[in-house]
Design brief:
The structure is a homodimer. Chain A has helices at 12-21, 65-77, 107-117, 148-158, 172-182, 225-236, 255-262, 281-294; strands at 4-7, 25-26, 29-33, 39-43, 52-55, 83-86, 120-124, 141-145, 162-166, 186-188, 190-193, 199-202, 213-221, 242-249, 263-268, 276-278. By secondary structure, the first copy, chain A, is α/β, with parallel strands linked by helices. Chain A folds into two domains: 4-145 and 280-293, Rossmann fold (3-Layer(aba) Sandwich); 148-278, Rossmann fold, CATH 3.40.50. In chain A, the strands form four sheets. In chain A, strands 2-1-5-6-7-8 form a six-stranded parallel sheet, with helices on both faces. A six-stranded parallel sheet of chain A has the order 10-9-13-14-15-16, with helices on both faces.
Chain lengths: 298, 298
């Protein structure tokens, strides 16, 4: 039977493209808040014996998580066969180690919450640094969509002589992958972080790239400090105006204003933002389709 | 060993009185938000082999729940013996039935989340209407603090000839209890709810109570519509200015302004609010102390 896709508080346009690409039916959901702020949810579609997919974009996850868990639980109670989650951005992946005694390694309890609620998970380039795979902390079936092919295609189509630049060693693995796919040269810089907003970046010699457009690529842009520091250095080195590309453009605080003042800023449509240029609907739907097909429902 | 009490985003004054009354040590907690809004938590106290109690007041629960679960999980990982929760207000108890097909019966998934995270729970007068006990949905050890004795004492001390009034049949059981403890007469009204903000109240004959101060008591005041409707009728019947007492004064929207314009509004300190007059620290601490003593840690 055709699966259902429920859009929970997320981009309606991406939601309906996901639904079409999956050949699914749009699930009907009613939600409101009680006067005291508690959430009310009601599923109007018939979900019994059907696969259900929730599209919920989990940026700013603290204020979304409870309703998401409530919806998954309700679908389960109403007899859904399997329950999948599509979240282009998977939060809390960066706290992947107890850096200091007593810290919450939030990636782990967050993974348990989602794993208890869902059978299937599709996301785009989760921040896998110390974990090698989602399976280390998630106990559900997951599929990761790599943004590199879409980013590489965008670069090939829009930038004449790109020089790809990764802001730190964590980005090397997949900046090099984008560069290879775009058939472009690349450089990795070294970064020292002194706090949430304090970042120092060191650059290799850049003289030989003066005829190239620097293309800075990172998985997550949050405060934007790493990018801003890097852009400063590129300007000093006399390189042309840079292009900044994020898979997940969170753009906290004034990051967007400051970055777009000195560079062309582009993002995948992982987090809804005016900078969204790179579509993710096709690979997200394909990944969820593959998970649903791998172990078909009765 | 002395238990630790951690105050998570809750009233610091009530928190320290709880800590003193429990003979506990104040747990040291560091928290902030990353620039993208995700939560950072760090426990500075040594919790290994110690009982830990989190005081987290769960009104407006959606924006508090994730940090609460993260903290409980962190204490567990750090080796806490048992983890208790003191929340004067226990949310999501009113959605205790699937009133319409497809509705989320949120009391159940919410109970599961807390039951997975905690060993012990203390709360004040949870809204037990269709459930007879928290044990029907909570699988942890819980103790319920009744507010009736504290409310009855406050009435005895402050109101000369009180007539206790319960706004609907759900309130009868414990309005009658308050009345008996305060040695005062009582009346229960009948209520018809037509929506979150639309309520109709019917009153018995009130002429014989013209020399009494009406004291309206309810467990939860949210939109305040039930109380406002009732106060209108009491005014029409020529009764003196009423006193309104809530165990949990949520006072959504303009409820507080509208109620306090026509009545003296009093609440237990369950939800921090200017109307708080009735202290809960002693019975809350006693209840948690009893749970901790019942099955002492090694």
């Amino acid at each position: 039977m055709t699966p259902l896709v429920f859009n929970l508080d997320s981009d309606p346009d991406l939601g309906s493209r996901l639904c079409r690409a999956l050949g699914a039916e749009a699930g009907e959901l009613e939600q409101r808040h009680f006067p005291d702020g508690e959430s009310y949810l009601r599923v109007h579609s018939t979900v019994h014996n059907r696969d259900c997919v929730i599209f919920c974009n989990l940026f700013q996850p603290d204020r979304r998580i409870l309703r998401l868990l409530f919806l998954a639980d309700t679908l389960r109670e109403l007899g859904a066969t399997r329950i999948g989650l599509i979240t282009p951005y998977l939060p809390y992946m960066r706290q992947d180690k107890r850096f200091h005694a007593g810290e919450c390694v939030s990636s782990r309890p967050f993974a348990r919450l989602l794993s208890n609620a869902f059978d299937l998970l599709v996301t785009v380039d989760p921040h896998l640094h110390r974990y090698h795979s989602l399976d280390e902390i998630y106990s559900l079936k997951s599929q990761v969509v790599p943004a590199a092919p879409m980013i590489a295609r965008w670069i090939s189509e829009h930038i004449e002589r790109p020089l790809l630049i990764g802001p730190d060693s964590e980005s090397e693995q997949w900046v090099s992958q984008v560069a290879k796919l775009a058939n472009a040269p690349w450089q990795i810089l070294s970064k020292q972080r002194h706090g949430d907003y304090q970042v120092e970046v060191s650059l290799p010699r850049l003289e030989r790239w003066q005829q190239h457009t620097p293309v800075l690529v990172d998985d997550i842009i949050s405060s934007g400090r790493t990018m801003l520091e890097t852009l400063d250095h590129l300007q000093s080195a006399g390189l042309p105006r840079a292009c900044v590309i994020a898979v997940h453009g969170l753009f906290a605080g004034d990051a967007w204003q400051r970055l777009s003042a000195i560079a062309d800023v582009i993002s995948c449509e992982s987090v809804p933002h005016p900078s969204n240029r790179i579509s993710l609907s096709a690979p997200l739907a394909a990944a969820m389709g593959a998970l649903l097909a791998a172990d078909p429902s009765p």
